[in-house]
Amino acid sequence: MSLECDRINGINLSQGVCDTEIHKVVREGAHKAIEDGINTYTRYDGLQELRRAITAKQKRFCGIEYDPENEVIVSAGSTGALYCACLSLLNPGDEVIVFEPFYGYHISTLVVAGAVPVYVRTMPPDWSFQMHDLERVKTDRTRAIIINTPSNPSGKIFTMEELKNVASFASRHDLFIFTDEIYEHFVYDGAKHISPATLPDMKERTIVISGLSKTFNITGWRVGYCLCDKKWARTIGYFNDLVYVCSPAPLQMGVADGLSQLDDEYYMRIAGNYLIKRDKLCDALKDSGFHPYIPQGAYYVLADISKLPGANSREKAMTLLESTGVACVPGEAFYHDKAGEHLARFCFAKEDDVLEEACGRLQKLHL
After folding, report:
1. Which CATH architecture has domain 2-21+265-361?
2. For strand 72-75 and strand 224-227, is the pairing parallel, antiparallel, or unpaired?
3. N or C: which terminal CB in the chain sees fewer CB atoms within 10 Å?
């Protein structure tokens, strides 16, 4: 959809690329690192300054301690961190439970690692799920569960009750929990992000995947990380070294400076600013005749676009692009079957003037 959008010079609300400004502290930290000669390979698990900053951040926001020398792996984005974790902890043929709608890269990563995704459906409007569905898909080959909270594409934030149920399920069946938490600071309406690793007896089996691409608006820098018990970390680090060698050294320093120097107000401002963007887009979608499912977190909106002409979600998304110049992602990208054919995902991580123009175009539809 990004390619199709570029073809007509449209407004891209499809790909989750932040085009908002990078904070001065982060930019200048990377520039200083280059000038100071921090331009060579790092240790296999990243620069010490960044590993320490990550563990300090995790304690500050989640209240859980990790050892920066033995329980952190800095990788090439959160996607790289998940890939290395899967290569380390999963064998070909292992099954991994995935909640859908899902983030497509999670599925691709599992498949490339030789694992087999199996699906548990979450249902709108709150994207809840049934525990009996977890039990239904569990087999002797099940090895892990992936949780994305806050979620791409639905914006779901897993509640404490849901996480306790999943944790109990994982403990009973001796499963890993891979948890993608990259949108942890994008939370709205009083919702609270909870890392599954903070639940009793869950740190050992939880592999936290995150990064700073979204928080610092640096999707192209490729600085992500994995937090886990030291018994898993070294092997994950070996795969990280084999596949990626390291995340870019000076960019790691920029991220470390951001984590170390930016105060809580910065993170609160993220949530406040994006709440305004969310409401603006959701209002425009409603005015257009669509039905948006209001997200609790992240920076995407899934909306029912069934009123648009087209036999499937791709045709409907193309109709929208051709008629308004606004690009979205067809809902079929987030399901393993036909369940997403009436849905589309819209991204609101855009500069205010860009989002304003997109909303104006959508509001002219009046379906």
Report:
1. Alpha-Beta Complex (3.90)
2. antiparallel
3. C
